[in-house]
UniProtKB/TrEMBL annotation:
Domain named Gelsolin-like: residues: 888-959
Domain Sec23/Sec24 beta-sandwich: start-end pairs: 672-756
Region of interest (Disordered), residue spans: 118-179, 194-247
Gene Ontology molecular functions: SNARE binding; zinc ion binding
Alphabetized InterPro entries for the sequence: ADF-H/Gelsolin-like_dom_sf (IPR029006), Beta-sandwich_Sec23_24 (IPR012990), Gelsolin-like_dom (IPR007123), Gelsolin-like_dom_sf (IPR036180), Sec23/24_helical_dom (IPR006900), Sec23/24_helical_dom_sf (IPR036175), Sec23/24_trunk_dom (IPR006896), SEC23_SEC24_subfamily (IPR050550)
This protein's name: SEC24 homolog D, COPII coat complex component
Main subcellular location of this protein, as a coarse class: cytoplasm
Domain called Sec23/Sec24 trunk: residue spans: 423-667
GO biological process: COPII-coated vesicle cargo loading; intracellular protein transport
Length: 1018
């Protein structure tokens, strides 16, 4: 990342420089902190077992009365192991292993009477110009229909592969040749709706009355004419003779990805044109910034906004941007420039406070400029004056990043700093749960050993030899142990705080230190921690006080930073934030299911506020062996820009490396601290809603205690007036933050969009990957307040509505039996169907409540790449791989029918990774990969490939390590054999098939949506 130069600007509010402005963002209100104040009666404490180091025990009284260090303790013998440690660990597969075969009988007639036709629109429609607005004409050529191959009547579920494979190859003139057309159409899909998915959990239910609503855009009235519940009534299904739809003929994500890679891969995307649709997130391309932010920073659901609110309402396509303000740039792209205007700070519009950018129009010989956002005419400050050339452009246009680039930084003045003081260097505090579980599993030792090398690699400012980030250490169970690791000490000192109700930090000097200076003492400490607690019997932990301690430490040191908390169990010890088991599978598929996703109010709510106000980001590494109420425990991380990592039933042998890879990535990430973001827009529309791992004190300021390269904030826009085709629509995202080196900066991203009174322009400029990011986040937020059933209905209805509107307004007339999809959205239904089958939305008692809550929160902070991959995993065939080719293996569709008994496949979705071995896979291949003669010889629980010295092994391992490198999370490799029980885990990611826990196959969903569209159009 470009930690190297950037610049910052003035506060976000309209307040005058020097005052007010900053406060707005940083919740100043001295409301009574829940804890964190000194005072109150002294509490007894029990000393923890400790090793060689000096143990110094303090309590508040001592602290207050300024009696320094009180006693040097001799340690009592730890109590004998008493409490049992929770329930026996259940197998990873427990919850999903044997859902039983999916009911198939309802599905047998599924694909009956489907025809497929292709609307080939202009057979040779040219590829879209790479660096201009996509301008292809929208013609709707007559459909080519094809005679569908006969399907053997109702043999098995269409879910099963044999049935889906076409008995003969489709005619060459077939539909997917039409990929670059304006619209993709399929005839004959309106037929009888195929059999319903199994009723009950996860199936799509009859929409309830009044449940219609929508995400994004404008509320539509209830859609009275959307009856057909997803499972159609079987009686409605009788139809013409059964025919089969060739699965290869329905739009395929893998084709879309491949096509875009062929067209735009390896090319330069220049951002000089307004409303330009960028290559897909999956395409490998290079960006040259020429006035608009790179798509790595901002992507939109459409790059052509409708001119009026009425049009927006009519199409129901959400208008949103997904902003990754700290996105990593590849090495061959220029890092952001930093502009420094010294004490003056950045030039801003007097009225709307937008920062100087390429959308400011200089007039009057360069003495004034008109703001592109609010049209206000401003005087150019004297220091900033420059003459204009014959084009009316400033002659220093190319010398000033803020005049010619989409993204850049300003150095912020003191006006942008807390209390008008320059910030101190940020700090990382490592907080390790040393209760019985973590000691016994070897985790504590693993962490301590890793930190010794990892701390050498803390992120640095570009050009700096060492990191400015300070480090501190805390261990805890029911009490907290702080460590003095000042470089002058021969031995680290431990200080125990047992009063968790009134958390305070017992030392200032020596707690947060420079790693390089204190390396010897820190090594000493990290060596001792595992031994000190080796005999612990303590199984209870606190949690909220641990976070509170971090907040207090940052407050005391007047710095921002991040807590890395390594925690094993639900905090049940008597302390603020104590939790109890409230998991209740009986709530699944009831109106109360939402409570499973809602965090417990009170302590954690207040803690989030405190964290954000003091710039304290929380990353939680969780090692649970049972339910831990992640909905609540992850509440603070999810409001502070932090991440939650979960390793269920952690075992060093199988999960250790996976965890360490995550930890290394996490610690070394490029990151900004104490961040606040504001999105400004030109007149006519504005940002109305925000989704992300952030906190909002008011309706406009997005606060994040920290923001790293993976954090994505999704911003929704609405009209408040008519937009002009001529001037387009502008947005400016300004992120005020503190760098790793402790400098206050403003990072600015600008983007200009087109506006059109033609809906066809909107549909042409849609980006499906961004749309699905928006829908995922809005649906995942909605389930906090609404029954899942309603949320799923809204998703289906809105999908149908968006597509029906296209059909009605943008496609030329054709038979109602044809399904016509806008080219830019032709794979939208696959993603939408996949989204509805994700754990949070599916409503199955077989899924773990914690897993569902975890996924919900993770997705809320994702950018477009991550949601794309999550909702459509890569399934890569390895059995026919060319070991000599540099070309990456081409993924195939995520469907069972792509698997073969002799095949070997790698599947990954950014969170999980599987190596699937067909039962008839070649013994040679198995030998080369595993060094065993056959599948039967494979050991269970293998989680890595052995390092064998042969081309195939090297190739496969390099594919895997390449993926691990590329993704934001590390993934654990799970090796599954066809027909083994764990295969179910793998199969849930075959998202084109019927869901294991409910939800339709892609084909069924498409048919259903088509039926809905037809109903909307009549
Ligand atoms: Zn303005």
């Amino acid at each position: 990342m470009s930690q190297q130069g950037y610049v910052a600007a003035p506060p976000y509010s309209q307040a005058q420089p020097g005052m007010g402005a900053y406060q707005g963002g940083f919740g100043s209100g001295p409301t009574q902190p829940l804890y964190g104040h000194y005072g109150g009666p002294p509490q007894a404490f029990s000393a923890p077992p400790a090793g060689k180091m000096h143990l110094i025990v303090l309590n508040r009284t001592f602290f207050l009365s300024a009696i320094t260090v009180v006693m040097i303790f001799s340690y009592p013998a730890p109590p004998a192991v008493s409490a049992p440690y929770g329930q026996p660990p259940h197998s990873l597969y427990n919850s999903m292993a044997s859902p039983g075969p999916p009911p198939t009988q309802q599905l047998t007639n599924q694909m009956s009477s489907m025809n497929l036709g292709s609307h080939v629109q202009g057979l040779q429609s040219p590829p879209p110009p790479v660096s201009s607005v996509v301008q292809q004409p929208f013609q709707t050529p007559p459909p080519l229909t094809m005679a569908p191959p006969q399907m053997p009547p109702g043999l098995q579920s269409p879910h099963m592969s044999p049935l889906m494979s076409p008995p003969q190859s489709p005619p060459a003139s077939m539909p997917m040749a039409s990929q670059s057309m304006a619209g993709t159409s399929m005839a004959g899909m309106g037929g009888p709706f195929p059999g319903p998915p199994p009723p009950g959990p996860g199936g799509f239910q009859q929409p309830g009355l009044g449940s219609a609503g929508q995400f994004g855009g404008y509320m539509a009235g209830p859609q009275q004419n959307m009856p057909g519940a997803f499972p159609g009534a079987p009686s409605a299904m009788a139809g013409p003779p059964q025919k089969k739809l060739d699965p290869d003929s329905i739009p395929s994500i893998t084709h879309v990805i491949e096509d875009d890679q062929v067209k735009q891969g390896g090319q330069v995307f220049t951002t000089n044109i307004r409303g330009q649709v960028p290559p897909l997130v999956t395409t490998d391309f290079t960006v040259t910034d020429q006035g608009n932010a790179s798509p790595r920073f901002i992507r939109c659901t459409t790059y052509s906004l409708p001119c009026t609110a009425d049009l927006a309402k009519q199409c129901q396509v959400p208008l949103a941007a997904i902003i990754k303000p700290f996105a990593s740039l590849p090495k061959n792209e220029t890092p952001l420039y930093v502009v420094n205007h010294g004490d003056t700070g950045p030039v801003r519009c007097n009225r709307c406070k937008a920062y100087m950018c390429p959308y400011m129009q200089f007039i009057d010989g360069g003495r004034r400029y008109q703001c592109g956002f609010c049209n206000c005419v401003n005087e150019v400050p004297v220091f900033y004056f420059q003459h204009l050339d014959h084009m009316g452009r400033r002659v220093d246009f190319y010398e000033r990043p803020e005049l010619s680039l989409g993204s850049y930084e300003f150095v912020a003045t003191l006006d942008y700093c807390k209390n008008n003081k320059p910030p101190n260097s940020p700090a990382y505090i490592f907080m390790i749960d040393v209760s019985y579980n973590n000691i016994k599993s070897g985790l504590v030792k693993l962490i301590c050993d890793e930190l010794k090398t990892l701390l050498e690699k803390l992120p640095r400012e570009e050009g700096m030899e060492t990191s400015a980030i300070k480090v501190g250490f805390v261990t805890y169970n029911k009490v907290l142990h702080f460590y003095n690791v000042k470089s002058a000490l021969a031995q680290p000192q431990m200080m125990v705080v047992s009063d968790t109700a009134e958390m305070f930090v017992p030392l200032l000097d020596g707690f947060l230190v420079n790693y390089q200076d204190s390396r010897a003492v820190i090594y000493n400490l990290l060596d001792q921690i595992p031994d000190m607690f080796a005999d612990t019997a303590e199984s209870e932990t606190v949690f909220a006080p641990v976070i509170q301690a971090g907040v207090e430490a940052f407050k005391a040191a007047e710095c921002s930073g991040k807590l890395f908390i390594f925690h094993s169990s639900m905090p049940t010890a008597e302390a603020p934030g104590k939790l109890k088991n409230r998991d209740d599978k009986k709530l699944v598929n009831t109106d109360k299911e939402k409570t499973l996703f809602q965090p417990q109010k009170g302590v954690y709510e207040q803690l989030s506020k405190d964290c954000v106000a003091s710039g304290c980001c929380v990353d939680l590494f969780l090692f649970p062996s049972q339910y831990t109420d992640i909905a609540t425990m992850a509440d603070v991380p999810s409001h502070t820009g932090g991440s939650v990592y979960k390793y269920s039933n952690f075992q060093i042998e199988t999960d250790g490396e996976h965890f360490l890879r995550d930890l290394r990535k996490d610690v070394q990430k490029s990151i900004g601290f104490d961040a606040i973001m504001r999105v400004r827009t030109s007149t006519g529309f504005r940002a109305t809603d925000f989704f992300g791992g952030m906190y909002m004190n008011n309706t406009t300021d997005v606060e994040m205690a920290a923001v790293d390269c993976d954090n994505g904030v999704t911003v929704e826009f609405k009209h408040d007036d008519t937009l002009s085709e001529e001037t387009g629509a502008l947005m400016q995202c300004a992120l005020l933050y503190t760098t790793i080196g402790g400098q206050r900066r403003l990072r600015i991203h600008n983007l200009s969009l087109n506006c059109s009174s033609q809906l066809s322009e909107l549909y042409k400029s849609c980006e499906t990957d961004s749309l699905i990011n928006f829908f995922a986040k809005s649906a995942y937020r909605a389930i906090l307040n609404q029954p899942l059933k309603n949320v799923r209905e809204i998703l289906v209805n809105q999908t149908a509505h968006m597509l029906a509107c296209y059909r009605k307004n943008c496609a030329s007339p054709s038979a109602a039996s044809q399904l016509i999809l806008p080219d830019a959205m032709k794979v939208f239904p696959v993603y939408m169907n996949s989204l509805m089958k994700t754990a949070p939305l599916v409503g199955s008692t077989e899924l773990s409540t914690d897993d569902r809550a975890h996924q919900r929160l993770s997705v809320m902070a994702m950018g477009v790449e991550d949601t794309q991959l999550l909702l459509y995993p890569r399934l890569i065939p390895l059995h026919n791989i060319d070991v000599n080719s540099e070309k990456p293996a081409t993924p195939v569709r995520c469907s069972e029918e792509r698997l073969t008994d002799s095949g070997i496949f790698l599947l990954e979705n950014g969170q999980s990774m599987f190596l699937w071995l067909g039962q008839a896979s070649s013994p040679d291949f198995i030998q080369s990969l595993f060094n065993v003669p056959s599948l039967a010889h494979l050991q269970g629980h293998m989680c890595a490939l052995p390092e064998l010295d042969n081309p195939l092994s090297r190739k496969v391992r390099s594919i895997i390590s390449g993926l691990l490198e590329k993704r934001s999370n590390s993934m654990k490799l799970q090796i599954v054999r066809q027909k083994d029980k764990p295969e179910m885990l793998f199969r849930q990611f075959l998202v084109e098939d019927k869901g294991l826990h409910g939800g339709a196959s892609y084909m069924d969903f498409l048919c259903y949506v088509h039926r809905e569209i037809r109903q909307l159009l009549t």
